[in-house]
Amino acid sequence: MHRPKSTLEQWRILQAVVDFGGYAQAADHLSKSQSSLNHAVAKLQSQLGIQLLEVKGRKAYLTEQGEVLLRRSRHLTQTVNELEQLASNLEQGWEPSLIIARELVYPMELLTNALATFLPESRGTRITVVDTVINGTSELIVNNQVDLAICGVPPKGYIAEPLCDLEFHLVCHRDHPLAQMGELEDDRELAQHLQIVIKDTGVNPTQEIGWLKAEQRWTVSNFHEAKVILSKGIGFCWVPEHLIQDEIQSGQLVRLKMKGASTRRIVLTLVVPQRDNQGPASKLLESLILAQHTEATEPLLV
Description:
Blueprint: H1 8-19, H2 23-30, H3 34-48, E1 53-56, E2 59-62, H4 64-91, E3 97-103, H5 108-118, E4 126-132, H6 135-142, E5 148-151, E6 159-173, E7 183-184, E8 194-198, E9 216-220, H7 223-231, E10 236-240, H8 245-250, E11 253-255, E12 257-258, E13 263-271, H9 280-290, E14 300-301
Parallel strand pairs: 3-4, 3-5, 7-12, 8-9
Antiparallel strand pairs: 1-2, 5-13, 6-10, 6-11, 6-13, 6-14
Helix pairs in contact: 1-2, 1-3, 1-4, 2-3, 5-9
C-alpha cells in the first residue's frame, strides 16, 4: 500500500508562505514559529526531492516546479476543506440534497431567482428540480418523494402557502380556422378541432383539470412542444400567459374569444410534505421562494 510522503499540513504551510509573501508573515498568520514553518517546507522539499521555494532577500518565491505542485495542492486542500465542512453540515442536520417538484406552469425564472440567492448559502447542497403536472405533483407530495413542491391543487390535509395566480389563455395560430371566427358562441365549435394537451405526470391520474371536450387530442410533455405544434397552424391549447407573451405580441398566436370562457385562472401554492422533519436547507429555500412573491396571504388548508 502506497503511503504519501507529504501531509496536508505541509501543503497548507507552503500555501501560506507563498500567499503572505514569506515565512515571517505566514508564521504570524498561522500563529506558529517561523522556524517550524522553515522546517516543514524544508522537509517537504526533501521528501519530494524537488525545490519548491527559493528565498531572495526576505521574500520566498516559487520555483517553476513549485508553481505546478502548489496549484495542484490548492485543489487537494480545498477538497478536504469541503469534505470537513460537509461532515459538519451533516452533523448539524443540513441536507446534502433537496428535491423540488415544480408544477410545469410555474415561472422558472422565479424559481431560478430563489435558487441563485440560495447558492452562496447552500453549503454544497445538491438541487434536483422535477417538472410535474397535476396528479404527478400530488403523488410526489403524498409519497414524500420531494422536499418542496410548487403545485396547483395540493392534496387534502396539506398546508399550502399561496404563491401566485396564473392566467391561462385559449390560443391558436393566426392562420388557424378558429382565429377567423371572431367570438365563439360556445365550446361546441371548439370540440370540432384538434386540442393540444399537456400530459399529466401522475402514475395513476384521478382528476382531469380544464376543458377536455375536443373530439381529437394530441398530448405532449410540455408547453414548448405545444407551442411548436401551434406554430405550424395546428390545433388550439390553453397556455399560461407568461409563456406566450412574445408570440401574442408578434401576432403569431392569437387569443380565442369565447363567451364566458376565454381565460381561466389557477392559484399556485408551496407545500412542504414533511414539515415536522424539515431541515435547515429546506427551510431556507422555502423562505427564498416565498420571498419572490410580495403579496402577503394567509396559508391555505385543503
